[in-house]
Write a structure and sequence with these properties.
The chain is α+β, with helices and mostly antiparallel strands. The chain has 2 domains: 56 residues; 113 residues, Winged helix-like DNA-binding domain superfamily/Winged helix DNA-binding domain (Arc Repressor Mutant, subunit A). It has 4 helices and 8 strands. It has a 3-stranded antiparallel sheet with strand order 1-2-3, with no helix packed on it. Helix 2 crosses helix 3.
Length: 190
Amino acid sequence: MTACLPTQPEIFNQFRLKTERREKIALEIAKRRKEMLRIAGEIAELSAEDAEIQVTVAELLDQLDANGAIKPVLLDFDSDGKTIRWKGKSVQLGWNPRNIVKVLYFATNRRATITGLGKAIWGDQLCNHKTIKATISKLNRALKKTSFPYKIKSVKSKKQVVSVEDFLSKKVRSVTIRCPIVGYKLVARK
């Protein structure tokens, strides 16, 4: 039995088919390389984000005590009447803002009523609520800039729901009355 040798056109046709297959494979390899490079870039970005998250979590865990509560940060109120120091850092405030922080820091549960703050800071129980609110708002902005470990939050009274009858339609509906601020508290910044 003799084998039949391929003709020249058949050889060229086989060569052309193999070349086309090699080109398709090369294109597929190039696409996959491009995809692998994209994935490698995403992995690098995620690794950087993961490292930042790990550092943040470690810092936050360091702030917790054995029971999981936030450790209080020791504040030192300098005798100059304006400076507060903590963990090697400091902030200089005006007389009243510094004293607001001091009153809240040493208060029971780190809370004080508006009348208590008015009396302690301005010497007047009937101090204008707007004055206290504006001072605390400015104080919180100043403290945030210095990475102060605490912030001041308002304490509101409980929500009140009142039934109101519409004069024209005589329908009764429930209305939630806006809760007034009754005091302020010093809380750990997260």
